[in-house]
Amino acid sequence: MALDPETFAALIETVRRYVAERLRPLEAQVEAEDAVPDAVVAEMRDMGLFGLSIAEDYGGLGLTMAEEARVAIEMGRTTPAFRSTFGTNVGIGSQGLVLAGTPEQKAEWLPRIAAGEIVTSFALTEPGVGSDSGAVATRAVRDGDVYRLSGTKRYITNADRADLFTVMARTSDAPGGRGVSAFLVPRTLAGVSVGEPEKKMGQKGAKVADLHLDDVAVPVVNRLGAEGQGFKIAMRVLDRGRLHIAAVCVGVAERLIADCVAYASERRQFGKAIAEHQLIQAMIADSKTEALAARALVLETAAAKDAGAEVVLESAAAKYYASEMVGRVADRAVQIYGGAGYIADYGIERLYRDVRLFRIYEGTSQIQQLIIARETLKRGG
Fold first, then answer.
1. For residues 202 and 148, is the Cβ–Cβ distance under 8 A?
2. Are 158 and 121 in contact (CB under 8 A)?
3. 65-75 and 278-306 helices cross at what angle (nearest 10)?
4. b/e string for 319-342 if b means 16 or more Cβ within 10 A?
5. CA distances for 324 relative to 34, 294, 328, 356, angstroms
6. Quick one: which of 72, 106, 108 has its CA closest to 90?
7. Where are the alpha helices (DSSP H) in 179-229?
8. Rounded percentage of the chain residues whose pLDDT exceeds 70
9. Contact status, residue 161 vs residue 152, Cβ threshold 8 Å
10. Closest CA to 281 of 336, 235, 328
11. Which has the closest alpha carbon to 263: 319, 316, 340?
12. How many CB atoms lie within 10 A of CB 200?
């Protein structure tokens, strides 16, 4: 259920001010320390950001997809690590539970996820499994009242601090996704271990690491949905996650455009502000047009999802277009800033590196193209 307009407007204004006044001044610190300050994490908990997409019955804000997208756009105006701090709780780390959890599972976990008391992660990718997500090799073997899980998951966001993992594991030899089931795996279970965080190109402060499962005894009651339904659950989760990421891309693009306008209005060459030069204006115009198009696609698709429409194609298109778009905007931003854009002090090179990941996770651009083409052919155009 959507918030009343006045309450939602107040939420957006609060998030906007928090990003501008609290988070943006900390961006260089997060980059240098590769960590989001504990005080900021606590503030985000207090603001309810960990429970944006979780129903009010379980302590969340219960935002619609359209409302969540608007919040994600605002959070996109600062370094992505801040959004990633609570992003898995809002999206892929909790939505399997929201969509397929039993009443008992929801009652046990969702209130603590919404409060930020526990951090969640979504464990699908493996050393040999990336875009071909139906090829999951991690095994789950039924043994009485438990499943014994063994395998390694790779590049798992927030794995370093996650308390609960949604793990995709193979429960049968049925080909592709038909043999994959989903499990809620608490970090405290014997045999669960997490590797050292990876060193990455960008998005410092948002950690990814390997998850190792060594004959982990997971109670049968921790299975999400029926056996063999894990892949379907994962795909439904990713539909929402793709829209969320697309909205973040819009926010980053809008921030970059605003920074470019401010810089170009002050920087002078050939006796006038570079904003007065038509080739600079062309780059600003292209960036603004593409950002507006992405925003419209994201918000229209989010509204359609809230109305109950099937949006597999549109979610893929939004993620594909927005993630490619923000890469182009970031590249133009470096060009507009010139030498300053390549220097760390201005933050443009940092965002240039940060946005590159958006074209990879939640499904690469090439996977989105395949989904878009498949769904378009199914619809007949």
1. no
2. yes
3. 150
4. bbbbbbbbbbbbbbbbebbeeebe
5. 25, 10, 7, 9
6. 72
7. none
8. 99
9. no
10. 336
11. 340
12. 16
Alpha-carbon span 288 to 329, nearest angstrom: 9
Rg (CA), the chain: 21
Helix, coil or strand: residue 207: coil
Nearest partner of 348 among 359, 336, 358, 357, judged by Cα: 336
Residue linked to tokens 């789950």: 140
Pairing verdict, β 268-269 and 223-224: unpaired
* Catalytic residue positions, numbered: 362
pTM comes to 0.95
Phi, psi of 305 (to 5 degrees): -60, -45
Strand blocks (E) in 29-173 = 120-123, 139-143, 146-157, 164-170
Name residue 72's amino acid: A
User: What is the per-residue pLDDT across 227-286, written as a single tens digit (0 to 9) for each?
Assistant: 999 989 988 888 899 999 999 999 999 999 999 999 999 999 999 999 999 999 999 999
The DSSP code for 167 is: E
- Side-chain-side CA neighbours of residue 22 (13 Å): 15
